[in-house]
Amino acid sequence: MLKVCDVEVIPLCDAVGPMGPALRRPVEETFPGAAPELWERMRAEEPAAFGPSGEWILRFHCFLLRPPGGGLTLVDTGIGPAGSPAAAWAPVPGRLPAALAGAGVAPGDVGTVVLTHLHSDHASGAVVAGAPLFPNARHLVQERELAGLRREGGPVLDAVVRPLLDAGLVDAADGEARLAPDVRAVPTPGHTAGHQSVVLGDDRLLVAGDVVLHPVQLADPAVTYLYDDDPARAAATRADLLARLRARGGTIAAPHLPRPFVDV
User: Fold this and answer.
1) What's the chain's Rg over C-alpha atoms?
2) Which residue range is the domain that position 8 belongs to?
3) Rounded to an integer, what is the distance from CA 133 to the centroid of its chain?
4) Residue 131, beta-bridge partner list
5) For 96, phi and psi rounded to 5 degrees?
6) 57 and 49 Cβ atoms separated by less than 8 Å
7) Total-model pTM
8) Nearest CA to 18 among 245, 214, 238?
9) pLDDT on residue 39
10) In the prediction, which pLDDT does 22 show?
11) What is the CATH number of the domain that holds 48?
12) What pLDDT is recorded for position 109?
């Protein structure tokens, strides 16, 4: 747990494992552009990010925010149950419900869910057995993200977003949204067009979603990711956010890094 601006930030580990065969590539192909010597350094400095054959080992973290005065916000909902849209490539089932229970939180206690983006490993845990898991929560997503998914279609739209829309639980934002004093959701495009992150204080903590996926991108923000929608924009967003955090001695909370909090 980390406390920033009197807000408790609690990491919830949903799963750990490599990508499944449908998406798995050598890590050097998954993050193109990194020099060979940088990979040598990463393997020495961040061994938990690599498996025995050199494959990328991901953590799947969600983050619970508990501001003073009450009102719980959950950032992302993980990979979901065994039959979720993430099952084709992620180590389902996710453990988010158990992790929440371990933090003393029932799904009905959550008042806001921020979906950083609508990829299956970040949104699938929002719906279980066809019903919203967090029935009392407003689910905040950027309008651009929602519009893009509607155009593309697919299992996340059908199995996750439509049940949330049918229940009237979706709030579509057009830009920055304030969640609580010192807590706001901000657009951070590149990985997807409507990607958003959560900022605490004056760039004291960034709950980053997929702005940063691997430690190699902290070492060199220009290193891109094979599955970014717009790699150049993602790299520019990443470089800007990391520069702002570093100028203030801030911390990044990124779902897929070996450690949930990294001082940058």
Assistant:
1) 17
2) 2-263
3) 18
4) 128
5) -55, -50
6) yes
7) 0.97
8) 214
9) 97
10) 83
11) 3.60.15.10
12) 98
In a 3-state reduction of DSSP, which class is residue 141? Answer: strand
CB 34 within 8 A of CB 216: yes
pLDDT < 50 positions in the chain? none
Q: How far is CA 16 from CA 51, 96, 188, 206, 217, in A?
A: 11, 12, 25, 22, 19
Q: Please choose, from the candidates 215, 198, 213, 205, the residue with its C-alpha nearest in 3D space to the C-alpha of residue 251.
A: 205
Specify the pLDDT at position 69: 83
Task: Give dist(CA 205, CA 207) in Å, integer.
Answer: 7
Pick the closest to residue 46 from 31, 56, 36 (CA basis): 56
C-alpha atoms less than 13 angstroms from C-alpha of 178 in its C-beta half-sphere:
4
Total domains in the fold of the chain = 1
pLDDT in tens, 14-31: 999 999 988 889 999 999
Beta strands, E only, the chain: 2-4, 7-18, 57-66, 72-75, 110-114, 127-128, 131-132, 138-142, 170-173, 177-180, 183-187, 196-200, 205-207, 251-253, 261-263
CA torsion sign for 206, 19, 229, 112 is: negative
Q: 3-class SS at 211? A: coil
Residue with tokens 């929002």, as numbered in its chain: 126
